Amino acid sequence: MGAGNLPLLFLTRRIPEPGPTLLRGSFTVCGGDEDRDLTGADLLDGVRGAAAVLCTLRERIDAAVLDAAGSSLRVVSNYAVGYDNIDVAAATERGILVTNTPGVLTDATADLTWALILAAARRVVEGDRMVRSGAFQGWAPTMLLGADVAGATLGIVGMGQIGRAVARRAAGFSMPVVYTRRSGPLKLEETPAGVEWRYCSDLDDLLREADIISVHVPLTEGTRHLLGARELALVRPGVVLVNTARGPVVHEEALVEALRAGPLGAAGLDVYEDEPAIHPGLVGLENVVLLPHLGSATHAARGRMAELAARNAIAALSGKRVPHPVNPEVLS
Ligand code: DGY
Q1: What CATH architecture does domain 106-290 belong to?
Q2: CATH code linked to domain 3-104+299-331
Q3: Measured in angstroms, how far is the CA atom of residue 97 from the centroid of ligand 1?
Q4: Cα–ligand 1 centroid distance for 137 (angstroms)
Q5: pLDDT tens column, 150-182
Q6: Which of 62, 107, 255, 331 is the most buried (most CB within 10 A)?
Q7: Ligand 1 nearest-atom number relative to CA 244
Q8: Which residues are annotated as catalytic?
């Protein structure tokens, strides 16, 4: 228990309002004053005796951290939709609920995916670099030619909430969509009218068919290196690959090679295999746009994530319905 008999919550770093205000109404909050990575020792120390931990994808919550918290720990509320930073099996074994923040960042992430699709296909960042460096000598018929986006076939690897939001935006570019989905094809009523969304049961078929490929699967042991050298060799020459999901889904070494020697034409990346480290091969390439994990980075989305992460933690300790449990079996 914290001061005033409120349970103790450890907040691993600063999050936007209304998160902190909501949390202070139900918890004694410790941490959350600074927006910087914690050391391993600070994390182990911070969680000690907490009933709840509100963490971000920058902290690895493994068995050692859960054990350091001790038997008081009831919930780990992740300030993210992806929860590959948490050992959910270890949490479940200990009866600790894990929660996440789906839905509230779907549109922000889909918008950023489109920013990368357009920037990579149309060489937007190369053009910006050219202008700033003084190398722009005037319009030229063959300068910085890119790939057509309108009418191109969009391949969505992982047609979950974010994949679908990206696919919906493709209608504005008259793009047919091919997709993979762990749980099989979408029902007819889940597909917007008047658009072509075709399910591929085999990822290889999507890779052979798409002109622009966008990755939206969560990181699990089954999706780590889902796109490796073999898969990247299957794509059409000049394909644009975008990843706003998790870096390790794409084998970065193979990606560098496919961008350098083909068949990939360009890539747009928001996430990296060993984030925040960037493969040195990527930095030297002109045909890749590199962003610092900005998918959900709008004021409104980050505020909604903070609210939902707080509500998950509060509900878990007050016995109310938890908005987004990851391992609901713990509740029963
Ligand atoms: C997530 O939520 O998983 C994003 O990567 C960060 O907002």
Answers
A1: 3-Layer(aba) Sandwich (3.40)
A2: 3.40.50.720
A3: 19
A4: 41
A5: 999 999 999 999 999 999 999 999 999 999 999
A6: 255
A7: 5
A8: 246, 275, 293
